[in-house]
Every structure is written in structure tokens, then in C-alpha cells.
Amino acid sequence: MTAHAYQYGLEDRPPTPTLWALGAQHAVLALVFLVYPLAVAQELAMDPGSTLAFLSSCVIGIGVATCLHSFRAPVGSASLAVEIPTPLFLPTAMIAGGMGGMSAIAAVSLLCGLTEVFFARVLRHVRALFPAEICGIAVLMLGVSIIRPGMLNAFGLTQPTGIVQGASLLVSVATLTTITVLSVFGSPRIKILALAGGILVGVSLAVKCGLLGSAEWNKIAGARWLALPGVSLELPQLDISLVPLAIVMALAQSVDNLGMLVGIQQQVEPRWHKLDLRQASGGIQVSGIGDLVSGIFGGMPTGISSANVGLAHATGAVARRIALVAGVLLLAAPFVPKIIVAVSLVPRPVVGAIVVYAAVYMVVSGMSLILDRVLNDRRIFVIGFSVVLGLTSALIPGIYHSAPSILQPILESPLAVSALAAILLTQLFRLGAALRRNFELLLSDTDNESLQELQINRTLRHELAKVAADIGASKAFLDRVIDVTAELLAAMRVLGCVKGNVRFTARMEDARMEITLVYDGLPVPTGQPDGALPSDELASSSPLANLLRVSRHVDRLEPRSSGSHQNLLLVYQP
What we know:
Layout: H1 16-32, H2 35-43, H3 48-69, E1 83-85, H4 90-121, H5 123-126, H6 132-145, H7 147-154, H8 166-185, H9 188-191, H10 194-208, H11 214-222, H12 243-268, H13 277-297, E2 302-304, H14 306-315, H15 321-332, H16 337-344, H17 348-371, H18 377-395, H19 408-411, H20 414-429, E3 436-441, H21 449-471, H22 475-495, E4 498-509, E5 512-521, H23 535-540, H24 542-551, E6 556-562, E7 565-572
Antiparallel strand pairs: 1-2, 3-4, 4-5, 5-7, 6-7
Helix pairs in contact: 1-14, 1-15, 2-3, 2-4, 2-17, 3-13, 3-15, 3-16, 4-12, 4-13, 6-12, 6-17, 6-18, 6-20, 7-17, 8-10, 8-17, 10-17, 11-16, 12-13, 12-20, 18-20, 21-22, 22-24
């Protein structure tokens, strides 16, 4: 669906009843993801009061962040982005909670928030250090990290050596089956409600199996409709050994949020071809602020929800004002204890099934991000070593028990080890990479622009493949560079601007590609003729119209001329 097909675009003002209805849908969907902090609470055996406080703190954090997304940068991302308690921090929250309880989780959230806000401020300068495969490795290993707690809850176990509970297994299988069937076979509107459908089926079956009895229903019935949120305001206490882990996780979350913001930009702008750094920086900053707010009240970090991006697409409404309404409704939820109590009583097998579903989704999503890159021997080793190192602690428990205490939280986390190894190995394997390519481009004499473009495209693809692989350019970025450059050169040749062959230089700098074309002939028309060709001839030329259209897809185009000797600089950014 392109942007013009949306019923309510980014800056539109839906009617007030419609606006609140759309906001309510997003708020309800975000509340479904409270199962992630609930999984942490159940893993740490929190008492009911602490669980309610933990969930309420998380809701306040995502409510504030979602509201801020509706504002323009530098305050927010000026988009319909909805925050949820991010599953990326499930293993970290469990480790921190096991070491110091809720005060340690709050401290980790605060440190993560500060790291994300800092990352947002320096995004323009460090973006090249975090290519997509690093994010892919982090997401893949996150899926691996949460398999164990998910399966234990699904089987009704506290330890792997226990006896599988038949009722728990039945409930978890029914929940997971429902989510899978709705996700695979449902319509677009049904797919985004798959998680809620799975919870509904799982809870209903849990009642039938006696996993939810009268005691739980009495707790819901006895909860008040309106009351002040029962949040925890304990002084955060951070074990120094958790600092490296929290920073690594915050960087991974920032890269993941960056990917989500790219998806939102593509959703709103059908001709999207480069990242809006100002909007992305504002969005990552907002997520960091959500972490800080959540940490102040004792909750876990937040992240942008992909499910809500799908909901915006399905409803045909991407107006940023919807985020403000959704955020306000989320902030109101902790003042309705009955809602929070009901969420806290979702049975462990249901939560386990959802965590397993999330693990499956993340493993596949991580693989997709990794394979989006042009792979060569360097990148294969980066990915392979990072994944193997991350799996070590999971496959050989206790192997790092003799490591320094400050390093143990990182070494015992598959996600942290893999992400850190990927960042370090990526920079190491960049050494000696072929970042420049020089060759002579032989142009044919045909006046058929399509045939000329096809021949140029083949040559560029052959010559640029190694450069793109060594720098780690995505396949989509490489395709755009080749297609636009080939179309531009073909139009220039047919127009008569190029005489003879073209000396071609491609250079990768950070995440962008600079291409320099040196040739004899006429300067390339830029829409403001300077006497190179008669203006009436330019205006009536079909190849010229095509050339001017294609040139708009180049991030920067700088022609220079010295008599008949021409130099054209093309700059592309992902």
C-alpha cells in the first residue's frame, strides 16, 4: 500500500471519534505485549504486589514514549510509532532481576535509556559501525536466548529435570497453534490480532483445565476500577558487572529501533530511498526516554512495536496524532488496576507459548536481516564466529564460571556475546577490504536506451559486487546504485552527452558509495541548461526527461567540466 492510498496520512487530522477509536486499537495491542514483563515476573517468582508494580511501571514508560513519538524531531520521530516492553531485554532483565530484584532491573533500564539517548545524538557519525547483519545477529540470538524460559513455562516446569504437566502442555500448544494459524492463514486485519487471539484461546482453555480458578477470578473482581498506580519507587541499584551487558543491549536495541523507523519511513513515503537521519535520531531518543521513565518507576526498557506498524498499515491510518492518543490511553491504563491485575494473571503456559512464538519469529527475522547483506568470506566468518561464540554458554553451561565477575553477565548471555563479537569482528574484518574499484566502462553505439541500460547494468553489477560485499552493503542498496547509475548513463549516451568510453571509479566511505564518472563530451543536464545544448531541444527530448527523473534518485549529483573533459560525481546513501 502506498502512502497516497492511506485514508489518513501522516499529517492528517482524523475526526475525533475515529481518532480515539484508532488510538484505542493501538493501545490495546500494546497492552497485549505486557506478557513480556510478565514472563520476567514469573521467572523471578515475584509476589503479586511486585508484579502489579512492575507491569504498571512498564505501561507508564511505553505511554510516555508513545506520546513523544507524535512530536517532530528533535523531540520525537513525528510518526505513528508505538512502544512496547521490548522482548530484546528479556534475558537481561532476568539476569539483573536475579542479581538484585526490581531495583537492579530499574537501574539497567536507566543505563539503557542513557545509552540510547547518547546513541541517538551521535547516530550520524556511528551509523556505519552498526550494519544490518549486527542487528540480525542480535535478533537471532535473542530468539535463542528466550527459548529456555519459554519452553519451561510452556511445559509447566521450573527446572528442566521436572515432569511435564499435561494440562500446561495442552494450553501452550493450543495457544501457539492459534497464533500460528491466525498469522499464516488470516487476513491482514486478522494477522495483527493473532497474539490477542492466542491469549484468548489459551486463557479459555486454562479455565477449563483448572489452571485459572475462582481465586484468580476473585482477584480480578476485587480489583478497583480506579486507583493510583501501584508503582515501585525503590532506589535503583546497579551491580557494576551489569554495566557492559546493559550497554551492549542498549546498542542492539538502538539498531533494532533504527530498522523499525526505516520501515515506518518506507510505509509513509512510497519513493523512499534514503534514511531520514533527523527522524531516526528523534525516534531512538524517544525510545531511550521511555527507558528512563520506565526505570524511574521500576520497569524494563521499551522498544518500537512492529505489530503496531502492521496495524497502521491494515487500518489505512498512519497519522502521527494517533500515537498521541494511544500514548494518553496507555498512561491511563495504570489508573485502572483491574486491567493490570487481569494481565498479571495470564497463566504461565500461555506466556510460555507466546515467548516460544516470539523466539521463532526472532530467529527467522534475524536470519532475514543477515541474508539481506551481500555476503563474502569476511562477512561469513563474522556471522559464523559471532553465532558460535554466542551459543557456547547455552551449549556448555558453566564454561565461564572462572571468568572475572564483571564479565560473567555478558559471557553467560548468548545475545550479549554474539552482539559484541559481531561489532568487534565487523571492524576487524574491514581491514584490508577493497573499498575502491577503478575500471573503464565500454559503451556500445546503440541508440536503443533500454539495450544500452541493460549492457551497462551487467557491467556495473560484475564490477561492484566485490566492493559491496567487502563493505557490507545491503542487496537493496547495491541494486539501487547499479540501476540508477545504469539508467542515468544510458540516457546520457543516447542524449549525446558521452563520447567514447567512461572511466569509472567507485569508492565506499562509511555506509555510502561515491561514484566518479570521467568522460569526454557535454556536461550532464541538471534541469537548468547552461548552454551545453539548446534549451528547446532539451525540453522536447524524451531521453532528457528520463535523465532528469532518474537524477532525482541520486543523493548528490555534482557535474564539473573543463572544455570537453567532463567529471560527474554521484553520491548514494542507504
